[in-house]
Write a structure and sequence with these properties.
The structure is a single chain. By secondary structure, the chain is α+β, with helices and mostly antiparallel strands. It has one domain: Sandwich (Immunoglobulin-like). It has 1 helix and 9 strands. The strands form 2 sheets. Strands 5-6-2-1-9 form a 5-stranded antiparallel beta sheet, with no helix packed on it. A hairpin with a 5-residue loop joins strand 3 and strand 4. The longest helix has 25 residues.
Length: 149
């Protein structure tokens, strides 16, 4: 009887862990991205550099869409500052139309404490919604897969 109860408890714990892992793996970065941006955020890599941060935003271009290189791209901080990308990387499958984009921004510790919104094409994507400084846990970088950081 004890063995059967142990097996049932173990099965419940394993099922819960599996459901949690599946939920974290398949949840989107943002549940309602702006369609005008023509992209969705995959992840944001944050790397500290003394009192500054490198924030690298990885985007997938929506199928059938393209990124307009003529329109300005900027990251707007909670204080209203508009930061231009320090680096932009484009990737494509066919060598013509971009399918992935990486924008890299340089932020100081005051700028990263508020919400961050990426303005591109004709839309706005929420990169960070929290008003707190990101917790990196003493590591050299952290990859965020949701905008709740």
């Amino acid at each position: 009887m004890k063995r059967r109860i142990f097996r049932i408890c173990l099965l419940l714990v394993l099922s819960t862990a599996l459901l949690f892992a599946a939920w974290t793996w398949f949840r989107p970065y943002d549940w309602n991205p702006d369609p005008g941006a023509r992209c969705t955020v995959v992840a944001t890599l944050v790397t500290p550099d003394v009192t500054f941060y490198w924030v690298e935003v990885h985007l997938n271009v929506n199928p059938g869409m393209s990124h307009d290189l003529r329109k300005p791209v900027f990251l707007q901080t909670g204080s209203g500052a508009k930061l231009q990308p320090a680096d932009t990387t484009l990737a494509s499958i066919d060598g013509k139309t971009s399918t992935e984009i990486w924008f890299k921004f340089w932020l100081d510790s005051a700028q990263i404490k508020g919400p961050l919104n990426l303005h591109l094409n004709d839309g706005v994507l929420a990169i960070k919604k929290s008003a707190l400084e990101p917790k990196l846990g003493g590591s050299e970088f952290r990859n965020f897969t949701t905008n709740q950081w």
